[in-house]
Each structure stands twice: as structure tokens, then as C-alpha cells.
Amino acid sequence: MTIYFGYIDPIEEIRGVKSRVKNLGFYDSGIEDELTPGTSAAIAEFQRCINFPADGELTTETRQALAQVHGS
After folding, report:
1. Closest by alpha carbon to 31, among 19, 43, 45, 41?
2. Which one-letter DSSP state was computed for residue 34?
3. What is the pLDDT along the chain (72 residues), one digit of tens a residue?
4. Where does residue 30 rank: exposed (0-12), middle (13-18), buried (19+ CB within 10 A)?
5. How far is C-alpha 15 from the chain's CA centre?
6. Is the CA virtual torsion 12, 58, 44, 49 positive or negative?
7. What CA–CA distance (Å, rounded) separates 7 from 58?
């Protein structure tokens, strides 16, 4: 078994998005590879906090902002 310390999935993957919104405190569910209503709600809350339209859509701009705010 390999353990990766400090590893986070790429922002292009749903798991990477979920990990980042969870680390920032917007999401508290599991990190699976599926976009769920809970994920969309977390994305919308993040968007609200950064003054983006809070539609919960995972756009390129939202991914970029999430990566920037999260730090990777």
C-alpha cells in the first residue's frame, strides 16, 4: 500500500474539487468521484464567498479561483 502525504487530486477531477472545498470548510461529505447536489451546494457557497454568481456550476473560472484560494 502506498500512502501519499500532502497529495490532493488535480483540480480537473471531481475528487480534487471536493477535496479543496472540504479543506476550505464548505463541504463535509465523502470524497468520491461524483458531482452530487451536496457538491454543487458547496461550490455555490464558495462562489458566494468570492463574489462569483452562486449557481453551483463547476466552470473553468470557478476551478481556477478554487485552486488559487486553496493554494494549489
Report:
1. 19
2. S
3. 676 677 899 999 999 999 999 999 999 998 999 999 999 999 999 999 999 999 999 999 999 999 999 987
4. exposed
5. 8
6. positive
7. 22
Which are the contacts of 32, defined by CB distance < 8 A and separation ≥ 6? 14, 15, 18
Q: What is the pLDDT of residue 72?
A: 79
Cα–Cα distance, 69 to 47 (Å, whole number): 11
- Report d(CA 22, CA 63) in Å as an integer: 14
Grid cell locating 64: 481556477
Q: Can you list the positions of beta strands (E) in the chain?
A: none
